[in-house]
Design brief:
67% helix, 4 helices, mainly alpha
Length: 81
């Protein structure tokens, strides 16, 4: 199914890429879209980023010197002096 690029700047970019690579317009657009999808899918998810952050934070801590966090300690964080 043919398509028409209505944006002149986008059309010029597609033609430029096609000319540089020596391929047709459809193939140039196809390769650009495949590349963009691969690039987006290679990004880590927010969950992965959060897990990595937690692991790095935990690695920086010293469990041997840490104190237990109990209710009294948490309540003390919010007390007004």
């Amino acid at each position: 199914m043919p398509f028409h690029i209505k944006n002149p700047e986008t059309d010029a970019l597609a033609r430029r890429v096609a000319a540089l690579k020596g391929i047709g317009l459809t193939e140039a657009v196809h390769q650009a879209l495949v590349h963009e999808l691969e690039r987006d899918q290679a990004k880590p998810s927010l969950v992965d980023l959060g897990l990595k952050f937690c692991a790095e934070l935990r690695a920086k801590g010293d469990q041997a010197r840490s104190l237990p966090v109990d209710k009294a300690y948490r309540d003390a964080l919010y007390e007004d002096d």
